[in-house]
Structures are given as C-alpha cells and as structure tokens.
Amino acid sequence: MGGIVIPAGFFVPTRTFSLYTLHFLTITYPAFGSAFVKILEKSPLKTASNVPFYHFLARFRYLVKYITIAFLCLLTPEQIYSQDSISFKQLTDNTIPVPSKMDLTKLPRGEIFKVTHRDFTLQFFFNNNRDIFGFIFKRKTNTGIMAHLCLYRTCEVSPYDLRHVIAKPFEPPYDKTFFSIRFPPKLQYDFQGLEFLPHK
Description:
This protein has 200 residues and is an alpha+beta fold. It has 2 domains: 3-80, no CATH class; 89-199, Immunoglobulin-like (Sandwich), CATH 2.60.40. 23% of the residues lie in helices and 31% in strands. It has 5 helices and 11 strands; from the N terminus they run ββαααααβββββββββ. It has a 5-stranded mixed β-sheet, with helices on one face. A 4-stranded antiparallel β-sheet has the order 4-11-8-9, with no helix packed on it. Strand 6 and strand 7 form a beta hairpin. The longest helix is centred in the middle third of the chain and has 14 residues, at 61-74. It is globular, with a radius of gyration of 21 Å.
C-alpha cells in the first residue's frame, strides 16, 4: 500500500491524503512544500555496515519480518495511521468560492479556494504565497485544464505570463487528481492575476 512519509515521522497512506492534509502541513511546517519534493527525490537512506544493529537485522531478517507482520495484523487501522482520514465533502464549508479568473492581490492568504467551472471543479491554495497546490474534483473527458498566471490583475495577455497545463483532454484520470504549479526560480516579479481555463 503506497503512502507518503512526512518530516514529522508520520506515514500518511495516499488513500487518505487530501488537499486539506497538505494545506495543514504547509502551515505547520513552512518549508514543507519545497522539502516535500526534495524528500521524494532523495535516494533511500543507507545503513552503515559496521553498526551492530545492522548485523542483527541481516542475521535475523526473516524473524524480524514475521514478527513485524504479526504485530501489524494485531493493530487496528486507527493505531497504524497517525494521520486521520479527511474528506473533502466534510470540509467544503472551509473553502472560499472564487471565479475562474481572479485578482490575486485581493485573495486572503492561508485559505483554500474553490473554482466551479462548467467544465471542471477544483480547489487550490498557495504555499509560501507562490507555489500552488490543488486538487481536481472532476472535469469533462474532452476538456483539459490550463492555469494562467498573469502579470496583470485583469489577466490581460502579456509576454510575462505563465501558462501551465495541469490536465490534458482525453487523458485520465478525470477526477480526484492532485496538481501543483511551481513558481519559476529567480523570477524577478510576482503575478497579480490567475485564471483556470478549459484546455482542448
């Protein structure tokens, strides 16, 4: 069963990991957004061969394996997972509805926003006021989604804008999908507008 290991030492199964969990972690751990990617990119931790505990595991690895399996079987799901399951449906009241085209200078920071378009529904929030983390609830199969970060508040087209395709048409999954938009490094200006557009 796949999962995500976070810096606090908890194991969060991917089936219960939600945008709200990610939002909570980025607030509790300010550097979690960037560290999250770095942790996944790092190679597995290696154990020094001269440590006595390593020799014990190497010699009795099968015994340790069976004891661990038996121990896990005796635990209840609530004891195994330190992170509670969070449902989007349970927390919809905590989101702020916004149009698909918005003025970023007027959005409160530290909140989760919801965009309801005729072709798709998604939620997102800002990490460190720049990177965007989000979750696509649903979209039409023939419609992708493009995020347009605009230099101007009105999203008037500019050569300094950033366009990022977060979902492609006719390419699954069509619902329950996480997405992220990384702020370009070394960029000398901020975006003042944002819009989510159908991409066909």
